[in-house]
Amino acid sequence: MARRGQQRSLARRQRFHTAKNLVMALAGEVGELVAEFQWLTPEQAATVMDDPEAGARVRAEIGDVMIYLTRLADVLGIDLTEAAVAKLAEVSVRYPAGEVRGSAAKR
Amino acid sequence: MARRGQQRSLARRQRFHTAKNLVMALAGEVGELVAEFQWLTPEQAATVMDDPEAGARVRAEIGDVMIYLTRLADVLGIDLTEAAVAKLAEVSVRYPAGEVRGSAAKR
Amino acid sequence: MARRGQQRSLARRQRFHTAKNLVMALAGEVGELVAEFQWLTPEQAATVMDDPEAGARVRAEIGDVMIYLTRLADVLGIDLTEAAVAKLAEVSVRYPAGEVRGSAAKR
Amino acid sequence: MARRGQQRSLARRQRFHTAKNLVMALAGEVGELVAEFQWLTPEQAATVMDDPEAGARVRAEIGDVMIYLTRLADVLGIDLTEAAVAKLAEVSVRYPAGEVRGSAAKR
User: Fold this and answer.
1) pLDDT at A9
2) Is the ipTM of this complex over 0.85?
3) CB contact, 8 Å: B104 with chain C?
4) D60, exposed or middle or buried, with CB in 10 Å at 0-12, 13-18, 19+?
5) How far is CA A17 from CA A11, B53, C82, in A?
């Protein structure tokens, strides 16, 4: 019974969890994470984990982001850690003693 | 010399890499990832890794997302894998044989 | 009474509605809009407004996005329509009979 | 000649500018806007328009966001201003003298 439920669940997932949909789901979850921080001052944001309720919400949202990022990478055949390490290595070659600053560094 | 550069780089990172800024950097990188998929049909999105150029860009963007997600989790003292597993466990309790469908499941 | 409430509300808004926070609020609302579309096929997405419930949610999310985009532009002293028109004019000069395709066109 | 180019451009736009794709394009542009603000302090963000270069980039990104939001609303048959006003009216009924604070207010 549970097994049949799992198979049905897997079939449904394969239909919905296309690369394009997973990219959107990832963006949606990141939007929820951003919403947790949007009205906080930098100081409040830095100590958000000290607040039991807000901390639990932030942890749950980060969990959601990681779930969809992992699924997306899986569907695309990408190893998440390898992709991050390759990117860091590339940046450290381009900016030897410099700072990794995301899009600022890329300009 | 290289060592002094690394110290300066670390000091700069601590100033910029606040929780609030890292959440924004994560959102910015996810925006770049979304942009890679926005004009693709579902079929093109599914095979994007077969295209050497687009595939390399997608891998690089996923690397960037993973880098900022890891830094954010680090700054907040959250273990990424634990957060994802905890969220999956919670969902499987709430929807025993059901489907994890992001915000659709939460409604 | 109502007037005092409005003044308090305005003071609170000025404290929270900084440019940085409003950019995040905009990103959060766009995340909610993306979530409405993430599991829909292209065909379902095209006819989402025919569904009374989903249509009402999409309209509400688009309203939210417009509210925060307007406030952000206001805080920055930018005229939304002028900014859009200026961008379209610039693109039509660069790509005379071409296609406006967002980041794809910019590459 | 220019006319043929415009027709080709229009046909291409209709193929790419589906509701689902436009939602993604909007998210991508908002990601670029977020990237402009991610490393700024709240004070720097408040005065970003005083910097000619950064100010021009912010204006261009806001123009892009407005372009895709307008196209999306157009494709869905939604009037942007009406959607925003309807949402504001709904909030002011629910929170008479209160504050519109996005997702914080909704909790």
Assistant:
1) 72
2) no
3) yes
4) middle
5) 10, 24, 39
